[in-house]
Design brief:
By secondary structure, this protein is mostly helical. It has 15 helices and no strands. Helix 7 runs antiparallel to helix 15.
């Protein structure tokens, strides 16, 4: 319990960093979007501004009031018992927005989208005094659009939060996949302007941290060592220019020559002076073992890689933050 509590305690420096990152990305995105004709109307801004206060407020109100929660559960049971009412949901509680939890905005919003029909009848009943939490039709539409955008980050954070994954070689492919999805969302002319602007802000954050992978050679070395990727992955990847591919290859060769080739030659020479047996198979095995050792080193560096990748969590915060135009955003757990 103490460990969970410490993980949910925001670090002051992390809070300041996230606020600055999101504020900067949001301002840049609004200008970038305006330059290509993506602009929010005053009406759309009003819809976006009112969405999260209502969603988060209703969930918190029910959590704080056992009486209201009990009434909500009875309302849900009666609603689902009606003839012709169909739902696959078994939920009877609204998930609260917890700033220190991953994907909190998505979970909070998605639950209410899932229980929309049950919620509408409950909050509009004067008996409960919750009418001010009722979403407009436009806000329900925006809620659905935002859940579709935020699920991009949930899938990634769910994978990266597992103890056994990710490996270092998955970092760059993941960032590229995230860029592609956000790029498609930004260019989707059917999406609301606020979502497209948020996608641009998220792209700015992802691009910033993707660029930082150039400072650490292990990301490219790990891809080159991966059995189902190797250098072929770079050569077939359209996101990589020829100069980038050449640099990646040079990095792998340089690291091999500096850290392993000398040891291999010394071992071979030592064995050849005392044994006339053909050493070629042994050399090949030695080469493989050396790469396995290097692979174990990259796994040891996984923690530092995750620290960098988890910073992309700010991108999902940007999506939600732009939609409500404030700087109160979820925080990554302290120490991540």
């Amino acid at each position: 319990a103490d460990d969970l509590e410490s993980r949910d305690t925001p670090d002051a420096a992390k809070i300041d960093h996230d606020d600055e990152t999101i504020s900067t990305a949001k301002a840049q995105a609004i200008e970038q979007a305006r330059a290509v004709g993506i602009m929010m109307t005053a009406a759309a801004e009003k819809v976006a501004l009112g969405l999260f206060p209502k969603v988060a407020g209703l969930a918190q109100r029910l959590r704080d009031s056992p009486t209201l929660q009990d009434a909500f559960e009875r309302h849900i049971a009666a609603k689902r018992a009606q003839a012709g009412f169909k739902t696959s949901s078994t939920k009877v509680h609204l998930d609260c927005r917890v700033p220190t939890r991953w994907n909190s905005d998505f979970i909070c919003l998605n639950t209410q989208v899932e229980l929309r029909r049950e919620i509408q009848g409950f909050v509009t009943d004067p008996e409960h005094g919750l009418q001010h939490y009722s979403l407009t039709d436009a806000q329900w539409v925006l809620a659905g659009d935002l859940t579709e955008a935020l699920i991009i980050f949930k899938e990634i954070s769910d994978r990266f939060s597992q103890a056994e994954v990710p490996l270092v070689y998955e970092v760059i492919p993941m960032l590229e996949d995230l860029e592609h999805q956000l790029d498609a969302l930004r260019n989707d002319v059917t999406a609301p302007a606020v979502v497209r602007i948020a996608a641009q802000a998220a792209l700015n954050v992802v691009g910033k941290y993707y660029a930082l992978t150039d400072d650490c050679e292990v990301y490219r070395i790990a891809i080159a060592m991966c059995p189902d990727k190797k250098m072929v992955w770079f050569n077939q990847n359209q996101d990589w220019h020829e100069d980038d591919r050449v640099t990646a290859r040079q990095i792998v060769i340089k690291r091999w020559m500096e850290s392993y080739a000398g040891e291999e030659r010394s071992s071979v020479q030592s064995e050849s002076t005392s044994d006339t047996v053909n050493t070629e198979p042994a050399v090949r095995i030695f080469l493989v073992l050396n790469f396995l050792v290097l692979n174990s080193i990259t796994r040891d560096l996984e923690t530092s890689a995750l620290q960098m990748v988890c910073r992309t969590g700010a991108t999902s915060n940007v999506i939600a933050s732009v939609s409500r135009y404030d700087t109160s955003v979820p925080r990554w757990p302290a120490g991540v």
